[in-house]
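Holo model, shikimate-3-phosphate. Inputs:
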Amino acid sequence: MATILLIGFMGSGKTTVGKQLAEYLHQPHLDLDAWIEAHSGQSIKQIFTDHGETFFRDLESEALSAAIRQEGVLSTGGGTPVRSVNRKLLASSGSPVIFLQTSPEVIVNRLKNDASRPLLQSMDNDQFIELYQKRKTYYQQSADIIVDTDQKSPSEIAHEILIQI
Ligand code: S3P
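Output:
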């Protein structure tokens, strides 16, 4: 069973903080996007381009149900809690679900030059804010603990999580 589940928007630091937590806990770090890429043999970007988002979401749900049963710290993808089947898996896992809450300004700043996130390409600022607000509801619904990450280093965030779980 996963020890800690990290959720949050793209660019909120789920992977970086997850690695840090795994190091502190001497446990494996699992990253859902990396899991999907390893099992499909394609990059996330390629999967979106070749097969579309619905196909990616199916792979993501399959990957979540397998990865959540492994021991370690699991960093999910930004869209993982959007599907209700995934939210149910998160809720029934028995593992603490941590929402890394990052402001839209910080996210835009971090991701403005990142070409690897297919969902953000061709999205204007209004569309981004709309997606952010919609997602935030799902993250809040799924979270046992919410950690604000703006102005904090990955190790500060990891420590904040460790004292709360
Ligand atoms: C997505 C987030 C990405 C990746 C895919 C879709 C999303 O993961 O799963 O590009 O819908 O927010 P990160 O949150 O790790 O960037």
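The first helix runs from residue 14 to 25. The chain has one domain: 2-158.
Archived with the compound record.
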